[in-house]
Model the fold of this input.
Amino acid sequence: MKKRRWVEREIDQNQVNKLIIDLDLPRILARILVARGIVDSKQAQRYLKPDFTHLPDPMALAGMKEACARIEKAVLEGEKIGIFGDYDVDGVTSSVILSEFLESLGAQVAVTLPNRLTEGYGLSKAGLERLEAKGCRLIITVDCGVTAHEEVEIARSKNMEVVVIDHHTVPVTLPEAVAVINPHRQDCTRQAHHLCAAGVVFNMCMALRKHLREQGYFDNRQEPNLTQWLDLVALATVADVVPLIDDNRVFVQKGLEIVKKALRPGIKALLEAAKIAPHKVSSGTLGFHLGPRINAAGRLENAMSAVELLRSADYTSALLMAEELDANNQARRALEKQIVEEALEEIMSSSEHESAFGIVVGRESWHPGVVGIVASRLVEKTGKPTIVVGENGKGSGRSIPGFNLHEALLSIEETMIGFGGHAHAVGVHVNLEDFDLFQDAFRDYAKSKLKPEDLVPVLYHDGEIALDELSEKLVSQLAQAAPYGRSNPEPVFCIKGAKVDEFRELKGGHLKGKLSQGLDFIAFGMAEKQAILDKPVDMLVTPEMNEWLGRRILQLRVKDMLN
Done:
């Protein structure tokens, strides 16, 4: 692991004191809020108690009026509606939310997702043909479609109309669809860049339901309760790593309440397969346990199996599907581990990779379904923006703070067949004959934009803490600022000179032990750090309560340690 720099988050003590006085907050909680930019008392109240009344008007999203009008027409006239989604968690959940919502309105719906290996990302001709064969005249794309100019034209030539619901970077010109809802549109006045596709879809459901209510549509039929889909909105929001701010914070906190009730057979089955009790669910559960299992369907098999799981009304059949996804996820992890090892061996043995400011590696034998995760692992290990290319030139990239991957690829687009994505993550398609050309161009661009100090990963923390300050009460106070995720990182504290009394290595390369003061700690993936534990160490830790066999014990989850 590349050595990391520890930086304490800056705070204004006067702002901390003001929150303490205005809201009667514990000092540690006020400090956490200020360090995350929550400095106004009203803002802090909304932050600590997210509520549905905080949700902005969904009609403020550009394209919403046109989309609702066309979808309403399809519902009222009994047109069959086709939904085309992406194969990741965001696309799968968006497809399920929209299909179930439209069915609750009485609409006929067909869902299809692309096969990652044969069709690739985005609206495809094959997908359009599948929906056309099912009699769909209106196609709604979710989590894709904003760059699908050619495919939208093909749909129009078949007398099918298209509504695009997406959240990816918008091209200069939009496709000729009936409507395009995307918070990144230049003419979208609502500040909603933080929404994932499922969040945009949920906004569309809110807007359409309100419009139909005003039309008297629900005078003689039951009006759908939208909270039933918040479990899926929360799952997508966390798994797609979008900022947990504003309405996303409402979605995730309220959605977690639904997940904990395990009302959806598919969610209950996924929790069972992951061996997680519903009452223990947190945002971390969504991101590290449920999300990867759903993603495994699209990575190695067909993502439609994940749609079927989440739409299932029968727990027994859902459990069988969840166990199959769990097996896929285990296979995916084994494949990922193998490719990471092969890639690291290549990187560590090459002086060119060592001196480069950006990493590009690729092999025809690498499964394109896992190259994105591999890229993430390599960024963690090297501290450099990384692109990993696999079979048929299909690849994925992940970035570091301050380096916009989408802009990087835009500047070298002539070296690729195609690409898409955003600042943090991209998908690429490279002609393997041009791989060296692409690699050199990416390295040159990265070198022109980055300095050596940019490649040293930074771990931010919330200041030094004494061991006697760590308690169950502290964990409870910090829980008020949850759910944690991107743009709302969980609290991390610095402990100086901790003495380790005992430790052991667990399966998977983890360390578990006790500090001399009796506090338990767990250090995931840090078996390589054993050699430094014979002397006092500085630790970055997150305090948490560990439940095991009916006991609740304070535990420190170690983020990094050094001496």
